[in-house]
Amino acid sequence: RIEERFGVSVHYVNGLKTSPERVRVDEDAWIVIVRYAPPKWLRWLERQRQKLAGVVYLLDDDIPSAVGAMELPLMCALKTAWRYARTRRLLERLCSEVWVSTPELAGRYPSARPKLWEPRYLDSPFSAERPVVYFYHGTWAHRREIEWLVPVVRRVQETLPHACFEIMGTAQVRRLYRGIPRVRIVHPMPWTDYLAYAGTVQYHVGLAPCFDTFFNRARSHNKIFDITRLGAAGIYSNSVPYIDKIMHGHTGLLCENDEESWVNAIISLLQDKESRRAMYKGAVQWCKSLPH
Questions:
Q1: N or C: which end of the chain has fewer CB within 10 A?
Q2: Residue 248 CB contacts under 8 Å (≥ 6 apart), including other chains
Q3: Any idea which of 1-5, 19-23, 142-146, 159-163 has the lowest mean pLDDT?
Q4: Closest Cα partner for 60 from 90, 91, 103, 92?
Q5: How many CB atoms lie within 10 A of CB 198?
Q6: Which of 23, 22, 31 is nearest to 52 (CA)?
Q7: Are 245 and 221 in contact (CB under 8 A)?
Q8: Does 144 score more than 80 pLDDT?
Q9: Which of 266-271's residues contact partners 24+ apart within 8 Å by CB, and which partners?
Q10: What DSSP character marks residue 25?
């Protein structure tokens, strides 16, 4: 890590998602460009160059020769080559150092006088504190609920830096949740595969929002079984099909369908290990008490 090697604080910026005008660069700062930076960023850095201590270009793959790499998918190779070609001259003018990650790379570009920094192991940011995971496992048939949860999840993730959210979906869901940190998208799977998947994971809180509509009033309460099977305490809409199945505070939480209520309920339950455990145990007992 740069912090450990050089004893300085580091600010990480995603140049594809952040505008340079929103970033403040300190006097005598070092800038490290990893693989690629958009031309607007490079031109902006050129204007800041006099105040900077230096600009580094870090290569951990042979980007310049990607276009000839037959093992790469064609579109990936073309995209990589195009990005490099359109910024090469800007990088040459701007960068004062080149860092590479392997001796082979250093040997391929001796004229750049690269410095070799081989990769080092980095602990997960959750290694000291185990992350809490909450989830919503609903198909695209629950599109309204999936869309409604977006601002709820965004607020929870902003509040709890050690929370991870898992949701099932394809590219449609990925687009909806893009930009929210620590969200993982699991591809939908057949029921038998999902049942097997449930035996490999254990989460903390499961979500079951359900809008009070004519169609939804005929739905079953099977989400209680799904959430309990994954070892989690559940938060359910205070409506059919859960209103007469969940004992609030004992086998789960019943929540009104408004954003504020759900944000508060999720944050509260993720932070309360004892309540989660008690509600999960209550839900297990209830599930097992049902007639077969």
A1: C
A2: 254
A3: 1-5
A4: 103
A5: 18
A6: 31
A7: yes
A8: yes
A9: 266/134, 266/152, 266/156, 266/205, 266/207, 266/235, 267/156, 267/159, 267/160, 269/204, 269/205, 269/233, 269/235, 270/132, 270/134, 270/156, 270/160, 270/163, 270/204, 270/205, 271/160
A10: P
Measure the CA–CA gap between 171 and 184, rounded to whole angstroms: 12
* CB-side neighbour CA atoms (13 Å) of 100: 18
Contacts 24+ apart (CB under 8 A), 272-281: 275/233, 276/204, 276/205, 276/232, 276/233, 277/233, 278/250, 279/233, 279/234, 279/249, 279/250, 279/251, 279/252, 279/253, 280/228, 280/231, 280/232, 280/233
The answer for residues whose C-beta is within 8 angstroms of residue 3's C-beta and 6 or more apart is 9, 10
What residue type is assigned to position 107 of the chain? Answer: G
User: What is the pLDDT, as a whole number, of residue 280?
Assistant: 96
The three-state secondary structure class of 181 is coil
Name residue, tokens 């898992």. 166
- Judged against a pLDDT cut of 60, whether residue 23 lies above it is answered with yes
Secondary structure of residue 47 in the 3-state scheme: helix
Q: Return the residue matching tokens 């000839």.
A: 68
CB 22, CB 15: distance < 8 Å: no
Between the alpha carbon of residue 101 and those of residues 14, 269, 280, the distances in Å are 20, 43, 47
Residue 95 has pLDDT above 60, yes or no: yes
Q: Is 110 within 8 Å of 62 (Cβ atoms)?
A: no
CA 285 to chain centre: 34
